[in-house]
Amino acid sequence: MPVSESMRRGFLIFCLIILCFQPHGQSAEAGSVLSKAEKFLRAYPNFFSGYRDNMLILRDGGGIQFDDGRSKSFEELLSEADPEDELIQPYPTGPQSYGTPAVNFDPGRFRCAALFKKMYGANAKEVESHLTTVPWLPHSAHLFIRITRVNGVDRQLEAVSAELDQLPPEDKKYVLKPGGTFSWRPIAGSDQLSAHSFGIAIDIDPAYSDYWRWNTSDDHGKLIPYKNRIPHRSVEIFERHGFIWGGKWYHYDTMHFEYRPELLQPGN
Ligand SMILES: [Zn+2]
Questions:
Q1: Range of the structural domain that residue 85 is part of
Q2: Is the C or the N end of the chain the one with fewer CB within 10 Å?
Q3: How many domains is the chain built from?
Q4: Ligand 1 center from residue 135 Cα (angstroms)
């Protein structure tokens, strides 16, 4: 029996609906490998020169494997991420992006240590050799902080600082006394290096911040209650300049911002 035009159209609409309402599976949301590689190229134009045969090509002539082809558990993503895994969970932006994060939704916590070491330095001494000092809220806080010059992170943070300096006092109070920037150290409760080790992260005032470990002694078996006091306005300023915020993570860290422009590129 020939398929009628209306049945065919109905089937096409059905397919379209299925596509639109695909469950938020990790691979479906994160897009193709090539589009993910392009996000790295756009985010770090002075560091990468291209992408070929599953390799991100560095301007210094080296390369780094993009996708190791392994399917990883949440714990493995935290400790063994390749560059492709960094984008497995899309980092949300905009007014709708401040809700309570779903369990283990931690976009940006999967970090490829080998890539970070190539970019920012393989040990404390190498990272420190790339650090510079920028003024922090020069009209209000009168402080200086240390941050890396690699990838122009210092210039981006200086722009953040200048914009935060313009905020009204009720918003500015959260950022006047930063908790710290560079520190070569593992993440608490783990042997993975923190983003602070690479000179790309800043903690704003811990006195106004919330951290999942302060509210939960055991991550296993019970839900972590979400808490945040940081206003959206300051988060948006950081995001506009390439910094993601730890307040959008299930394992939240609302004082924490780190330079991860690959997570802020448009498209999936
Ligand atoms: Zn931090």
A1: 5-264
A2: N
A3: 1
A4: 19
